[in-house]
Amino acid sequence: MSDTEPPEKKPKIICNLSNIYLDTIDQCIESISSSERNLQPIISDELTQPLEFINVFVGHIKNVKDISRTILILNDKIPLKELSHLKRVRRQDIILCPTKFLDNMSSIQDYIESHVTELRDVFDYFKEVNVPLLPPKVMKQYNEVRKIWSCNFHPNHYFEKLVSNHFFSVYDVKIHRKFMEVAFEIAKWYAIHDGVAFDINNILLTIVNVTVVVDPNFNRIVTIAYDYRHDHPMQHSAMLAIDNVAKTQNGGVWSTESNDGLLPGIDKELVHFLKQKFSQFIIGLKKTNWSGAKGGQKMDTDGEKGGPKSDSHEENKEKDGPYLCTGYYVYMLREPCVMCAMALVHARAKRVFFCFNNSVCGALNSVAKLQTISSLNHHFEVFTGFL
Amino acid sequence: MVEFMKRALELASEALSAQEVPVGCVFTINDTIVAESRNSVNHTRNPTRHAEMNCIDSVLEHCKKNGIDHASYFRNVVVYVTVEPCIMCAAALNILNVNEVVYGCANDRFGGYTVLDVRKFYEPNYLLTGNLCADEAMALLKQFYKGANPNAPETKAKKKPS
Q1: Rounded to 5 degrees, what are φ and ψ at A361?
Q2: What is the C-alpha to C-alpha distance for residues B152 and A228, in angstroms, rounded to an integer?
Q3: Distance between CA B131 and CA B137 in Å, rounded?
Q4: Any idea which GO molecular function terms this record carries (chain B) (predicted)?
Q5: How do the pLDDT tens digits run along chain A, 387 residues long?
Q6: How would DSSP label each residue in A197-213?
Q7: Residues in a beta bridge with B83
Q8: Which residues of B touch A (CB under 8 A)?
Q9: Which residues is A221 bridged to in the sheet?
Q10: B44 with B15: CB under 8 angstroms?
Q11: CA distance B66 to chain A (A)
């Protein structure tokens, strides 16, 4: 009898970002820390989207002996600079021009006759082919492209790493997950401290957020910040964290209630709690002692060659001292809003990690991806995929 | 209108003398200045202390002190700022739902309209007008960028001559 019964279904945790099933913070923490899944970089659509195509006329050459001469003439008379990633010829087929070049001309034969008379008898027949408008950026795109047309491609090691599912080493994944755990423990601490039931919906509904700023060279928590926007509409946790970092550099503007000198602006009890709970990390940054001893194995902080330029060379730091959030990693519960995301650009953060999407106004994945806007003067890497 | 921008330009010059990026800003309600400030990023070591953010904080303080509801207060604010608000400030001004923003010169490096039109993410959003005393605003910026950032660490300061 029991054999015929279906096995009892395990309650499935839905990790789909728009449909969070984890309703307690402890479930969240458990899920973040127990998983070994690699984190996911949030990258430009250019690397992940299917390529755009353009329709071109292709001529099939009658005699293979004419190929090289024909290419030379075509490159001279109808140069196709914007399609220079494509080889002009594929076997006996030669790209003549995009179909849109024809305008009022009645046929491609007429076009060839009027633009390159000397080639009017070279072709057997013509056809239209959809070829990629832009050069492929990653191997996966290249493999699609070359089925259609011969193409120049130089794999970029950093791009390949971004689209792979193993950006971080197993060791680093653990550490990043641990720092995200710190962010959740802070949220929990405040919920208990303020006597309110922690509700994961508050994070999703953009009321609560936590920011943890880390110096990856020393596994040091430079500062933390809890959202204060209920009292001050600009004091989102990232904005507060940036100001707290300024305080470690003899700056800062927002006055904060308590200050024990270790984590400026952060409640002493919370600092004590974090020290107990996360003894593997150095907590706090003494203004005068920022270049303290190295703690344990450090994370791999240098991006691959070709990636965003690395600002965290220790030698530089020794010489200059910290500058804004240069070289720092930022961990947040929820994707920062447009204001906070741009503030992190201004602050020169090196990497931003977040757990939940902010579908209303998140600017690193949801409504925009500031890290992919080339005109901005600083670009950080962004990672998610903790749940 | 022009008088408010002229005042913002004075504040921007003040920023320049203090070795800050020369951007000045005034907030008005019914054609009366209710807040004015300038960039103070280098002094505060906080890269978010743009002129607009400083004005916002001063309005919030005023509201708190006088028991005024800041949400309805900001609704009537018209912002005059010498340079197009950056993406961060544009978002902040939308979050606060100010009535209108008038700027001097465009900001093609990180403008909250030129680089990314932030208003499309917010409903409602503010009215936006540019190009009021743009040349004066731009002249101040050019003067600043001839010099070096006094806060940049040695190794990062002016790597390439531009």
Answers
A1: -150, 30
A2: 30
A3: 10
A4: tRNA-specific adenosine-34 deaminase activity
A5: 444 444 444 333 334 333 444 567 888 899 999 999 999 999 999 898 888 999 999 999 999 999 999 999 999 999 999 999 999 999 999 999 999 988 776 799 999 998 999 999 999 999 999 999 999 999 999 999 999 999 999 999 999 999 998 999 999 999 999 999 999 999 888 888 877 766 777 777 767 899 999 999 999 999 999 988 988 999 999 999 999 999 888 899 997 655 555 676 678 889 899 999 999 998 886 554 444 334 445 566 654 444 454 444 444 444 456 899 999 999 999 999 999 999 999 999 999 999 999 999 999 999 999 999 999 999 999 999 999
A6: ---HHHHHTTS--EEEE
A7: B105
A8: 40, 43-49, 53, 56-57, 60, 70, 86-92, 95-96, 108-110, 115-116, 118, 121-122, 151-156
A9: A214, A283
A10: no
A11: 15
Instruction: Give the Å distances, CA to CA, from A252 to A165, A209, A281, B9.
Output: 39, 20, 24, 25
Q: Angle at which helices B51-65 and B87-95 pack, to 10 degrees?
A: 20
Closest C-alpha among A215, A207, A167, A170 to residue A312: A215
CATH topology of domain B1-146: Cytidine Deaminase; domain 2 (3.40.140)
Can you spell out the DSSP letters for A10-62? PPPPP--TTS----SHHHHHHHHHH--PPPEE---HHHHSPPPEEEEEEEEES
**Look-up: residue for tokens 């005699």?**
A63
3-state secondary structure of A225: strand
| Structural domains of chain A ordered from first start | 25-39+168-384 (3.40.140.10), 46-163 (no CATH)
C-alpha distances out from residue B162 to A322, B109, B142, B147, B148, Å: 25, 15, 12, 11, 11
Distance from CA of B88 to the nearest CA of A (A): 4
Residue B44 to residue A250, Cβ atoms within 8 A: no
d(CA A282, CA A219): 6
Which residue, chain included where needed, has tokens 């002094």?
Answer: B43
Instruction: List beta partners, residue A202.
Output: none
Cα–Cα distance, A360 to A130 (Å, whole number): 37
Token pair listed for A269: 């009890």
Torsions phi, psi of A123, nearest 5? -100, 145
Q: What is the ipTM of this complex?
A: 0.92
Q: List the domain boundaries for chain B.
A: 1-146
- In this prediction the pTM is 0.85
